[in-house]
Specification:
- About 45% of the residues lie in helices and about 15% in strands.
- It has one domain: Rossmann fold, CATH 3.40.50.
- It has helices at about 40-55, 70-75, 85-90, 95, 120-135, 150-160, 170-190, 205-220, 235-245, 250, 255-270, 280-300, and strands at about 30-35, 60-65, 100, 105-110, 140-145, 165-170, 195-200, 225-235.
- An eight-stranded mixed sheet has the order 3-4-2-5-1-6-7-8, with helices on both faces.
- With about 300 residues, it is of the alpha/beta class.
- It contains twelve helices and eight strands.
- About 50% of the residues are buried.
- It binds adenosine-5'-triphosphate and magnesium ion.
- Magnesium ion binds near residues 42, 43 and 145.
Length: about 300
């Protein structure tokens, strides 16, 4: 089946048809896993969290949000037939590109080395939301593993998400860049709630101390934000060992320290009340996005 959004001209890969294709009757919880600095463990955490949530009976979809240079399929040892590039450039639907991992996680694989997808156009952003509306009807959680930094795509995915998990590590540059990301999302995009996940911590104490430092800075310079401590994942050699053999640490080493933490975090996320219930759902966000998009066109 061809999607409605791909354009004839391959070189631009821009979707021009932004008509609504469906309305959602049931909304997934949409979580972004994001960071200011690269290499802090977003993808490792996202995939293992997805696995833990699946084990808790949830239907989970993972979107590789590093659209132009994704690696989720590689980390899972999967070979996708199609990727998101085929959606934007070759008329494939999300149904066609959806990859099913043997653990029960659904994955939307990103392109590999596709510079055009590093910054989506407004039309592409809208058509992506339309497709996500359709594909997530029977999904409990959609996890978006973003690229690092403050690019337009990163900001967009964090706006789509109801809950943004900002991953930091004890490295000062990781914290500094996370604060920059939070500043931009709060000041320019009015996002007010963030969850901090400390990865690669030596222990809970170090993680909580780091969180306190972040709060001191954000309280002082960014004003009235709600920043919560989600928890921490300890530095665990088993994480890298599992990754090198394209396995999930939760599956390969279920009793390792990182696996235990991630299982606990999955329970915390599942059991806590949904934050920003009416803000950030795909449906809500799409309406906002249409509004901004259409008014921008009227005003231009
Ligand atoms: N808790 C941990 N303990 C030890 N190593 C870890 C842990 N979490 C992640 N790593 C390792 O850190 C490296 C980077 O992880 P990962 O690719 O998940 O980061 P990322 O934030 O997604 O990177 P990018 O920003 O490039 O997408 C990997 O080698 C991974 O095995
Ligand atoms: Mg990654």
């Amino acid at each position: 089946m061809k999607n409605n959004y791909s354009r004839k001209k391959k070189d631009h890969c821009v979707s021009s048809d932004i008509k609504s294709s469906s309305f959602l009757f049931r909304f997934p919880r949409v979580l972004s896993v994001t960071s200011g600095k690269g290499g802090v463990g977003k993808t490792s955490f996202t995939l293992n969290l997805a696995f833990a949530l699946t084990r808790l009976g949830q239907k989970v979809l993972v979107l590789d949000g590093n659209l132009g240079l994704g690696n989720i399929d590689v980390l899972l040892g999967l070979t996708p037939k199609f990727t998101i590039e085929d959606f934007f450039c070759h008329g494939k639907s999300f149904q066609e590109i959806l990859l099913q991992d043997p653990n029960g996680i659904s994955i939307i694989p990103a392109g590999s080395g596709i510079p055009e997808l590093v910054t989506l156009t407004d039309d592409q952003k809208i058509s992506l939301l339309n497709e996500l509306d359709v594909i997530t009807v029977k999904t409990n959680f959609m996890l978006i593993d973003t690229a690092p930094g403050i690019s337009s795509n990163v900001l967009y995915f964090n706006m789509v998400a109801q809950e943004s998990i900002v991953v930091v590590t004890p490295e000062p540059t990781s914290t500094a860049n996370a604060i920059v990301l939070i500043r931009i999302l709060s000041r320019k995009h009015r996002k007010k709630h963030f969850d901090i996940l400390v990865n690669l911590a030596a222990n809970e104490n170090e993680a909580r101390e780091l969180f306190k430092k972040i709060i001191l800075t954000t309280d002082r310079f960014l004003g009235n934000l709600s920043i919560g401590y989600l928890g921490f994942v300890p530095f665990d050699n088993k994480m890298s060992v599992a990754l090198r053999s394209q396995k999930l640490v939760l599956k390969a080493y279920p009793e390792s320290s990182s696996s235990k933490s991630i299982r606990e975090l999955a329970k915390t996320i599942l059991e806590r009340p949904v934050l920003n219930k009416d803000r950030g759902s795909l449906h809500f966000f799409r309406r906002q996005f249409y509004f901004n998009h259409v008014s921008a066109q009227f005003n231009s």
